[in-house]
Structure formats: C-alpha cells, structure tokens
Design brief:
Largest sheet: none
CATH class: Mainly Alpha
Helix content: 55-70%
Shape: elongated
Number of strands: 0
CATH architecture: Up-down Bundle
CATH superfamily: Ferritin, core subunit, four-helix bundle
Strand content: under 5%
Length: 187
C-alpha cells in the first residue's frame, strides 16, 4: 500500500506543529548555557554589519572619482580587506561557542544595522563621511558585544573584540584625516 504524501514541504513542520529549536552544538566551552546565545546574537549582528560595511566600502572603492581617486581607491580597498578579515574570525568564534552563525545574504540583511548605499553617484567627501559614521556604528556595536562577553567572563571573545575595536578606530581616524580639506588647520 502506498504511503500517503505529507502535506508539508520537505524540511518544514506540518501545519499546527511547532518547529523544534535547533539543538546547541556540543563544544568544549565552559560558558553557561545562557551566555552562548547572548554572545552569539551580538557576534552575528557584527558579522552582518561587517558584511554590509565591507560591501559599502568596496562599492565606494569601485566608484570613487576625482582628484584624489588613487588615494581613496587604495584606502577603501585596504579598509575593505581588513573588514572582510574580521568576518571569518567573528563567525568562527560563534561556532566555537556552539552556536550557529549567519547562513545567507537574506539573514545578513535582516541583522544588519548599516544601511546600504545604492546611489548612482556619491561624492568622495560624502563617501568618507558615510564610512566614518558606519565605522562608528560598528565600533559602538562591538563595544556592546564586548560588554556582553565581559558579563559572561568570555575573555576570548572580549580579546578579539578589543583588537577589532582598535582596528576600526584606526580606520575611522584615517577616514577623518582623508576628509580634511586644505583649509582645515593642523591639530
């Protein structure tokens, strides 16, 4: 006798049945059970924002024009490379803790706080200003994640974030200095 086909799609729960939460991955972490989801949520938000900031920085790298083209083109490329390198380390930290990290561009879009810039033209000065503001947002989010890591005595995550905060502050400093005009006074 033929088996009656299920009415739910493969991988989906039948109507009216609650989906089970994915079990926590088995890891060697000694962090408490509630530490892992809190830290993972904060880090996954940073993964999403880092992807968004990386993409925007590459966008500006590709589309910058004007008398400082070469300087800005190289600066944006260098910063994008640095931002991209943080993504893997953040995502792997989430996995080491026994949680799941982002799976798709759609998930990144849901988690990101950095706004996309799809304009056909952005002046170099506006690019610098926008990237400065976005780096500040990422720094603020990193500090918040650091506070969560500290609360749960997760020194490894805190240490990673301290290095990333320092690097983001350096990026912001370079963007600020590059944005100054010839009429700005020194210090």
């Amino acid at each position: 006798m033929a088996k009656k086909p299920s009415k739910s799609a493969p991988g989906k729960s039948a109507p009216g049945k609650a989906e089970k939460a994915a079990p926590r991955l088995s890891t060697q972490t000694d962090l408490s059970g509630n530490a892992v989801p809190e830290i993972a949520e904060a880090l996954n938000g940073l993964v999403a924002d880092s992807y968004a900031l990386y993409t925007k920085t590459k966008n500006f790298h590709w589309h910058v024009s004007g008398p400082h083209f070469r300087d800005y083109h190289l600066l944006f490329d260098e910063q994008a490379t640095e931002i991209f390198a943080t993504i893997d380390e953040l995502a792997e930290r989430v996995r080491k803790l026994g949680a799941k990290t982002v799976h798709s561009i759609g998930e990144i879009a849901r988690l990101q706080t950095i706004k996309d810039n799809d304009k056909d033209f952005v002046s170099p000065g506006d690019m610098l200003a926008e990237l400065m503001e976005d780096n500040k947002k990422v720094i603020k989010r990193m500090r918040a994640a650091h506070d969560i890591a500290d609360k749960h005595e997760d020194v490894a995550t805190a240490s990673i974030l301290e290095n990333f905060i320092d690097a983001a502050e350096k990026r912001n400093w370079f963007l600020f200095e590059a944005s100054r005009t010839g009429t700005d006074s020194g210090h």
